[in-house]
Design goal:
Length: about 170
């Protein structure tokens, strides 16, 4: 009898989580190809057919250009630097921006790690939201390891943002 009650409670909890996810998905807003969560933070969008929004795809590209050398493929860490997925389960976008832009040093008895400040690196600074939404998609389990199979087209707003951020090259 106790097992049945626990089993029913577990099934009910799964149903509640599913409903919360559906509500969260419904509260997302899109503007110019960018997705925003109900709290205003940047988020990703993955269509039913697996197509990721442009910014998530861009984040994948930028991550592998600037971050994976230290943090390993897909944000899962390496012998050199910690994984990013576990901390991003609770980290807000402003916290993420602060750490990436200004760096971070962690000193423990068994290990020391230093994340360099990347705020002056335009290839990071100009794509901070893209990096965040890619990693959040990985954290939430919405995006498996590897290159996304399908992506949305690049919005005109993304081109305008790049031109504004990089200036005349």
């Amino acid at each position: 009898m106790k097992r049945a009650s626990i089993g029913l409670a577990f099934v009910a909890a799964l149903g509640l989580l599913s409903n919360l996810h559906a509500v969260g998905e419904a509260l997302k807003k899109e503007k110019d190809g960018k997705w925003e969560a109900a709290d205003g933070s940047p988020t990703y969008n993955i269509a039913n057919d697996g197509t990721v929004d442009w910014y998530t795809f861009s984040g994948f590209r930028r991550y592998h250009s600037e971050c994976h050398v230290c943090h390993g493929p897909d944000g899962e860490g390496s012998t050199y630097a910690p994984g990013l997925l576990e901390p991003l389960k609770t980290m807000t976008y402003p916290e993420f921006m602060l750490i990436v832009a200004t760096g971070r040093q962690v000193v423990r008895a068994d290990k020391q790690s230093v994340m360099p400040a990347l705020g002056d690196n335009a290839n990071v600074r100009c794509y901070m939201e893209d990096l965040y939404v890619y990693l959040k998609a990985r954290v939430d389990g919405g995006l498996p390891r590897g290159r996304p199979a399908k992506r949305a087209d690049k919005p005109a707003a993304a081109d305008a943002h790049e031109k504004a951020c990089f200036g005349d090259r």
